[in-house]
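Appendix B, Record 12. Input sequence as logged:
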Amino acid sequence: MRALVISGGGSKGAFAGGVAQYLIEEAQQHYDLFLGTSTGSLLISHLGLHKIAKIKEIYTSVHQKDIFSNCPFSTQKKHGVETIGIHHFNVLKNFYSGSKTFGESLNLLQLIKNTITLEEFNTLKNGPKDIVVTVSNLSLNQVEYKSINDFSYDEFCEWVWISCNYTPFMSLVKKDGCEYADGGLGTMVPIEEAIKRGATTVDAIILQTEVTHLNRMPSKNVFSLLTNMFAFMLDRIEHQNIRIGKYVAKHNNAIINFYYTPTVLTTNSLIFDKTKMAAWWESGFNYAKFKSSESSQLEPEITN
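Logged structural output:
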């Protein structure tokens, strides 16, 4: 059983899309299980349907307004570096309306429903492949995995949306009496879950460099500080997930093939720039092609 696992990473998901396109279309890999966190959850339904051109068009044309119904920050470029500033009016408007977060991402939920049709959902649900998204249950302090086989169309679209909600900048969702947020807050790279579900070979796309290559810019404001803090915590979670994944693979005789980003794509994955994302998609495709050309068969990750 072969699984494709895609980590969280916001706008960097475009790179993962390029890698997945090569693996599916050129390397002719056939996956039984697709498992994604955050931006990974947005990709996997379309990849499971082999509708790669469709999801590529979405990822290379998306704007901030397609994600945020109320964007809590503004961006500006200084000395070639994009920095986040607080959009005071939008934040105050959100608090005035009784929201617990700085911004809202209702537009993303609508985008998901506009791009995954009921017919496509039924094709996946009635097919042999399993599509699983990761969410964080803040009320019960646990990570949950939501399979397309267990939910209706509207419910599953909502779980995909919840998996992407990078709180406190995006929506906090109350569902079934619990508060839910971005799956990456608990599991950035769900390799362990893929193996638990029976995968013997896992292709894991990690939207981070294998070795840290940057020192973050000093925090300019409270939002900049928060994003730096969250980035630090998510990096630690990601490294832990990978270590656990290697351990579980070793004890289950499973193979993991890792695909890291070869360079730092962005220091702020909440900025959705269609030009950059189009370049990242092509970069992901070319990187997977280069890695594959190094040998006729990808070498498995050594886990012992």
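Residues 300-304 have pLDDT under 50 and may be disordered.
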